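Teaching assistant's notes for section 4

Start the section by putting this record on the projector. Ask students to predict, before seeing the second block, whether Iron-sulfur cluster carrier protein will look compact or extended. Collect guesses on the board.
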Amino acid sequence: MNAIEQDIYDRLGHVIDPELGKSITEIGMVTGVRVTPHEGEDSNTTNVYDVSISIELTVPGCPLSKTITDRINAAVGSYTEAKLIPHIEVGSMSQEKLAKLVEQLKAERHENPFNKPGNTTRIFAIASGKGGVGKSSVTANLAATFSALGYDTAAIDADIYGFSLPKLFGTSEQPVNLNGMLMPATAWGVKFMSIGNFAGSEKAILWRGPRLQRSLEQFLADVWWGSPDVLLLDLAPGTGDMAISVAQALPNAELVVVTTPQPSASDIAARSGLVALQVPMRVRGVVENMSWFEHKGEKLEIFGHGGGQRVADQLTHALHYNVPLLTQLPLDPEIREVGETGRPAVLDENGKLRDDDFAKAFKDLAEKLIEPPQL
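Reveal the predicted structure now:
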């Protein structure tokens, strides 16, 4: 019995808490494993055992309780030497135990986990010169694409005044507060934080520069992100306080500039990239949105053409390194309609990448960005 119990406990060490990204045994969630001979309809069959597993969740009524118990059942089911019938008893941690866990996590995390030595997270700040060019839609779809491709993906809604990620991801879920440390909301495989998860979409935000900077610091330092492969930031339009704060807090961030084809948008978009002349951020490239509208097989350039390439050329000349036009995206009412339902348009209802030109463009964009920049 002891050998089976130890084997089951070892297997539970591979069950990962979906919020903390750590093993449920490592964080003390498993408080007991007990194996006894099964006394039921299979009692006359050899090698049939009941397995009683006691776990303590970090908070009572944790919304991810079923996910955790499903993973435990799968771990128990992987034991092939005998038939095991799992029984899971779910409780919650005491305040003292939770406080010790949070202190342990904070000690591991440091203040800004994305600046600590050895951090491998790729950080992309999505910028634009003006509003209305589809920057937030690009952020949401790019994040969903990275996640669908298997990358551990996080996103921060750094557009405090014009936050939109909760609507684009289809959730207003409030982050779980673990003794002062927040667990990010999760939708479509993406962990994200937005002031909209606290303020509500109907409220206006009236903050000045110092408070804006503090909000970003809190999103970075007071949230348990784990170790994501990719972090996306949806910046506010222009080159204001938040863009400077991102550059100061995340000097390893790479800038992606979003524009539309017409000169009135592309000329302003170039300015958002030129911020790299004054802060330590590299511009990875340009995304041209709303490039054409397809009607009866013909591509109609409603907003003109060439804006994305103009921005790429201007930035290449000013920054003295190659800033490519990464992709061009169509203007499609269906993309807007799907996005407004709370599902990134690159995904189908099951969260898989769609097999269409729009999703393929984002897949290509993600693959280009994840490659190391050419110096």
